[in-house]
Amino acid sequence: EVQLVESGGDLVQPGRSLRLSCTTSGFTFGDYAMSWCRQAPGKGLEWLGFIRSKAYGVTTEYAASVKGRFTISRDDSKSIVYLQMNSLKTEDTAVYYCTRGEWLIDYWGQGTLVTVSS
Amino acid sequence: DIQMTQSPSTLSASVGDRITITCRASQSISGRLAWFQQKPGQAPKLLIYKASTLESGVPSRFSGSGSGTEFTLTISSLQPDDFATYYCQQYDSYSTFGQGTKVEIK
């Protein structure tokens, strides 16, 4: 069974940084691109970006809204994907989901809440 | 950026009804369209991809159709478990979601 478990969500002040982790199991992690999405309270879904597998050069793509502030990385030895978030803004407050896939997403974690507030 | 517009925003229906949700893209997306179901407090679940391909394990009462810029999700006979919010997602050029359609009990 595919499992994606996010961690690291917290209350953080504007301008600070936070790193989210996603621990995975139930599939061959190194074969898949991994991505992140988010959902602001009471709002819709937003795709943030992905990181390709080693076979595809571990390249990344990001949504314009987070490019330059957010960085996705992966550790294939631990089957973990990370989301480094810098210069956080109040509008980054959301539930952050770890997701499997590049452009098309087939599995989602349960999410971790990030609140950006002073 | 490709914009995705869903309609209606809210749909009131009864168990057994046939319902249709529409998703329009601001430009052609070559059939690269997925549908997700999300229940309160839960993560989204993939229902359909490539506009009409049913994900494994998804009941056959769900179906998708469309091409170019206009797509539909149909539930042929609404079941109690189907009351949820549905999102379309284009994955032709980067990725964007529609704003969601909440299916509620009439």
- Spans of chain B with pLDDT under 50 lasting ≥5 residues? none
Q: Which geometry of chain A do the CA atoms define?
A: globular
Provide the gyration radius of chain A in Å: 13 Å
Query: CA-to-CA gap between the ends of chain B?
Result: 36 Å
Number of helices of chain A: 0
* Oligomer type: heterodimer
Q: Which percent range fits the helix content of chain A? A: under 10%
In which range does the helix fraction of chain B lie? under 10%
Q: Kindly state the number of beta strands of chain A.
A: 11
* Broad shape of chain B: globular
Number of strands of chain B: 11
Task: Please state the structural category of chain B.
Answer: mainly beta
Structural class, from secondary structure content of chain A? Answer: mainly beta
SSE order of chain A, one letter for each helix or strand: EEEEEEEEEEE
Q: H/E series of chain B, N to C? A: EEEEEEEEEEE
The largest contact between protein chains, plus residue counts on each side, is: A-B, 17 and 23 residues
Distance between the termini of chain A: 40 Å
How is the main sheet of chain B built? 7 strands, mixed
Give the mean pLDDT of chain B: 96
